[in-house]
Amino acid sequence: MPQEPSQTSPRQDRIVRLVRSQGYMANEDMAQHFGVAVQTIRRDVTYLAGLGLLCRHHGGATPVSTVENLDYDARQILNSSAKDAIGRYAASLIPDRSSLFINIGTTTEAFARALTNHRDLRIVTNNLHVASLVSGRADFHTVLAGGQLRPRDGAILGATAIETLSSFRTEFGVIGISGIEEDGTLLDFDLSEIQCARTIIRNSRRVLLLADHAKFSRHPMGRVGNLEDIDDLITDRPVSEAFQRHLDAAGVTLHLAENNA
Questions:
Q1: Is 139:155 a contact under the CB 8 Å cutoff?
Q2: How far apart are CA 204 and CA 169, in angstroms?
Q3: % pLDDT > 90, the chain
Q4: Cα(126)–Cα(103) distance, integer angstroms
Q5: CB 198 within 8 A of CB 158
Q6: How far is CA 42 from the centre of its chain?
Q7: Quick check: 257 pLDDT over 50?
Q8: For 50-59, 103-112, 197-206, 219-228, which range has the lowest pLDDT when averaged over its residues?
Q9: Inter-CA distances, 231 with 174, 204, 210, 255, Å
Q10: Which domains does the chain possess?
Q11: Cα separation of 48 and 6, whole Å?
Q12: Any idea what DSSP says for residue 193?
């Protein structure tokens, strides 16, 4: 299981991006690139590999898979404090007596946990864990999508799930994502997840995308959509100037959730 993370440093974020762009980087080359000792790079690579952001090899590092997501237990731990902060911030954007979709993911589960002080919500979800988190509230009316249950993470997928989601039109769609390209392309690993996310986007009046900073370093091969498909991005670190320009062009509001961990 990955080690307990705190926050990655700016250099570690740049290491992830560099390895991703090059495909493989030797520790010595990274040390020269960043102007630090090889031992420092080795520690960084070991830490990042423990978070599931890189694959460590003798003498260097390669990117993580673009075709397979991290295990659910690893994703629960990875950047958990940032996800909690994002979840709390996103919850503050939802008024009482609202209707909303909540999709698959550990960040959307953090959002569901943050709905404690809300009243009279109407929730439609294909996430078994989200349904469990809100099930104790008598004033929450929750619809759990039918379909095939994926035991490893509580996702409910397939044609029946899509049909259930398509039967509703809500005020808010709260979605997570596995990766975001610098040009604003939204990415995920599993085609069934992508189809469910697209259904939620189509049937929501306002779409909130919840994504911690690590999602900008991950590049799954499945395309969910673009920034034009969402209305709000809630993340935990400032974005690059280039990405901010894409947000502005798409009319997306950026929200930075304060992470006090």
A1: no
A2: 6
A3: 68
A4: 6
A5: no
A6: 27
A7: yes
A8: 50-59
A9: 11, 10, 11, 11
A10: 10-63 (1.10.10.10), 73-256 (3.40.50.1360)
A11: 11
A12: H
Q: Which stretches does DSSP call E strand in the chain?
A: 25-26, 54-57, 60-63, 99-102, 122-125, 141-144, 148-150, 155-157, 170-176, 179-180, 186-188, 204-210, 222-225, 232-235, 253-256
Compute how many other C-beta atoms are within 10 angstroms of the C-beta atom of residue 77: 19
* SS3 at position 183: coil
Radius of gyration of the chain (CA): 19
Q: What whole-number distance in Å separates Cα of residue 209 and Cα of residue 22?
A: 28
- The answer to whether 16 and 54 have CB atoms below 8 angstroms apart is yes
CA angle 193-239-101, nearest 5°?
Answer: 30
Closest CA to 175 of 224, 128, 243: 224
Query: Strands (DSSP E) along 72-111, which ranges?
Result: 99-102
pLDDT of residue 31: 95
Task: State the amino acid at position 18 in one-letter form.
Answer: L
**Which pair of tokens denotes residue 145?**
């999508």
Please give the pLDDT value at position 6: 47
Put residue 154 in one of left, alpha, beta given phi > 0 → left and psi -120 to 50 → alpha: left
Kindly report the pTM of this predicted structure. 0.75
Output the pLDDT for position 1.
35
